[in-house]
Amino acid sequence: MTDKPMLVLIAGPYRSGTGGDPQEMAANLARLEAAAWPVFAAGHVPMIGEWVALPVLRSAGAGPTDPLAAQVLYPAAERLLTHCDAVLRLPGDSTGADRDVETARRRGLPVYHHVDEIPRRAPQESA
Question: Do 112 and 88 contact (CB within 8 A), yes or no?
Fold first, then answer.
């Protein structure tokens, strides 16, 4: 158990294997987001790179299949990793998620492959 909540980057396929199909990308994002509750329930703060990158792209008038996405999706996750305490790597082929794992390991951050591996936060008393 840990007493400090961790910021956990949830990494897995988003665009990979979709051929740019918006419905498939949405399904991949839903799979990433499905891990958010278990991370939160363990006492931590879930984070997904697309939660940052997609609004950035929209504000630039672009989307996830636009050429600008290469300058936003991976860099957003890399910047987030400077603030994260761990990575939860979900199954599936993903160059971006593999890069997240490499970056995390290079920075000495733990990489988990199942939410049950993440240490639960010690229960806190309500104020």
Answer: yes
Domain that holds residue 44: 7-114
Nearest to residue 49, comparing CAs of 60, 37, 36? 36
C-alpha 105 chain-centroid distance: 15
Q: pLDDT tens for residues 48-105? A: 999 999 999 999 999 999 999 999 999 999 999 999 999 999 999 999 999 999 999 9
Tell me, rounded to whole angstroms, the distance of Cα 121 from its chain centroid. 19
Residue 126: pLDDT above 60? no
Measured CA to CA, the distance from residue 11 to residue 72 in angstroms comes to: 15
CATH number reported for the structural domain that contains residue 44 in this entry: 3.40.50.10400
Q: What Å distances lie between residue 78 and 24, 59, 103, 107, 117, CA to CA?
A: 24, 20, 7, 11, 23
Domain count, the chain: 1
What is residue 119's three-state secondary structure? Answer: coil
